[in-house]
Amino acid sequence: MTDSSMAGAPPLTVMTVNIHKGFTTFNRKFILPELRDAVRKVGADVVFLQEVQGTHEDHCRKVNGWPDAPHYEFLADSIWPHNAYGRNMVHAKGHHGNALMSKFPIVHYQNHDVSVAGPEKRGLLHCVIRVPGQPLDVHAICVHLGLAESHRMHQLDLLCEMVRGEVPDNEPLVVAGDFNDWRRRANAILEREIGLREVFVNAYGEPAKTFPARFPLLCLDRIYVRNASVHLPVVLPRKPWSHLSDHAPLVAEIHL
């Protein structure tokens, strides 16, 4: 991270949260409308979302309060006019994946399939955001890595390869999401290979505990940056978040 931000430039507030397809833990209750209210109150400029439902033929008929629009559009509404969605898991009744909501224009996006053989489908959603007053575009990559460590190691290699090929060395980069990295191996790899720094490690000496949200023990969710500095990253409080997601959301103020 750089030690100083651009003079006079407002910070960019980012948030990441795994929304579990709009349901509480164990799919007991559909809570997407409550989740939308909570995300709005945070007021982040850019929101990284994992496990976002695009469509589901059965749920749209049977689940009370199921929106007509894809979930990322329902969450974005009028607050985040720019959004992108990357389908990862496609099945007979619908699909889900990662999404990014932004208050600023997304001038380009691409979803990269990083699935490893088997039923678990994963992706890296790369968005290029044009922030008013900033001379350089901001690259934002929404991440959801696999549960198996061998899969994660391969996916981290693919992430590094993608950054080298698609992100100019001098442009700001934010990589955030659910890394499922309970053994804490990603930090050293990403810093060594592509110069990413994890914001909680930089600020407090260790990554944030985010899972399970009610009593967090594991550091699964991360925010990494390059060519930017970060002020006071926070884990959002249990109330109301432990009711809304099994992952505690992270928020950081990023200075470009």
From TrEMBL:
Positions of the Endonuclease/exonuclease/phosphatase domain = 15-247
Q: Name one GO molecular function term.
A: catalytic activity
- Cellular component per GO, a single term: membrane
Q: Name one GO biological process term.
A: GPI anchor biosynthetic process
Superkingdom classification of source? Bacteria
User: What InterPro entries has UniProt attached to this entry?
Assistant: Endo/exonu/phosph_ase_sf, Endo/exonuclease/phosphatase, GPI-anchor_lipid_remodeler
Pfam families, alphabetically?
A: Exo_endo_phos
- How is this protein named in the record? Endonuclease/exonuclease/phosphatase domain-containing protein
